[in-house]
Specification:
With 243 residues, the protein is α+β, with helices and mostly antiparallel strands. The protein folds into two domains: 190 residues, Immunoglobulin-like (Sandwich), CATH 2.60.40; 39 residues. The protein is built from four helices and twelve strands. The strands form three sheets. Strands 2-12-11-4-7-8 form a six-stranded mixed β-sheet. The longest helix has 25 residues. The protein is globular.
Length: 243
């Protein structure tokens, strides 16, 4: 007698359902920054894993950048060595429910960019690995001091192993463009689910008019800016002359 065994039912993977409090951030005059609430749920039909950790990575937009090192010569600061990166995020923030080093190994953290030390930068040309690491650290430190790179290893709260939330601050100097918020569910040292949500940062009102005018009519914008500067200097001189 021949018995044919039915194939075992495929185990369903957990699903992340992410959401953001604002899918559009409008930058107006006097914009002082805003706080985004990133929240969602972990749907696990099989309940195969009873405990998850969550890491949220908010980043964007990527842009080429040249980083210059300052060197003091005879009491004067001058440009010394420099390097260029083809793609560096203008903003990068990581929030997690526990320290990333306790959740995954370094290889996994590097693949998914789960931390400031794992940001994937693309240097142009040939560069010594030691120099690359030094310049990469310098860029991260600079952006951290500008409030554009941030890391919170206890910034995600999980309730009843289903709901999660994290608050990430966008400073006033954040650049316009499309941002991606990628959420990772981690269990037993592995990323078992991920999902992406998007938020757009854009200027509105007079700021939007100036941005569009500068992009489409760069020459006229430059001439107008110089004329306004000259006029304001002349006006200030006249005012102080009358005082």
């Amino acid at each position: 007698m021949i018995v044919i065994a039915a194939p075992a039912a495929a185990q369903e993977d957990p699903i992340l359902v992410p959401e953001i409090s604002q899918h559009e951030v409008q930058v107006r005059q006097g914009f002082t920054g805003t706080e985004l609430l990133l929240f969602g749920a972990i749907l696990d039909p099989t309940r195969a894993t009873s405990q998850y950790d969550i890491v949220v990575v908010l980043k964007g937009p990527s842009q080429p950048i040249r980083l210059r090192e300052k060197e003091r010569v005879a009491g004067i600061w001058i440009n010394a060595e420099s390097t260029a990166f083809r793609s560096a995020p203008a903003y990068f923030a990581v929030a997690s429910s526990a320290p990333v080093k306790d959740l995954v190994d370094e290889r996994t953290a590097a693949i998914y960019e789960l931390g400031l030390e794992y940001i994937q930068l693309s240097p142009t040309g040939a560069i010594d690995p030691v120099e690359q690491a030094r310049f990469s650290s310098g860029l991260v430190d600079l952006r951290q001091r500008q409030g554009l790179f941030r890391e919170e290893m206890d910034g995600v709260q999980i309730k009843e192993e289903v709901l999660y939330q994290a608050r990430i601050y966008l400073p006033s100097n954040v650049q316009t463009g499309l941002y991606t918020a990628e959420t990772f569910a981690i269990a037993d040292g592995r990323v078992i689910a991920s999902a992406i949500a998007e938020v757009e940062v854009r200027k509105v009102g007079f700021e939007r008019f100036v941005e569009v005018f500068a992009q489409q009519w760069g020459l006229f914008y430059g001439i107008l800016a110089v004329m306004i500067s000259v006029f304001m200097g002349w006006l200030a001189g006249r005012v102080f002359a009358l005082i």
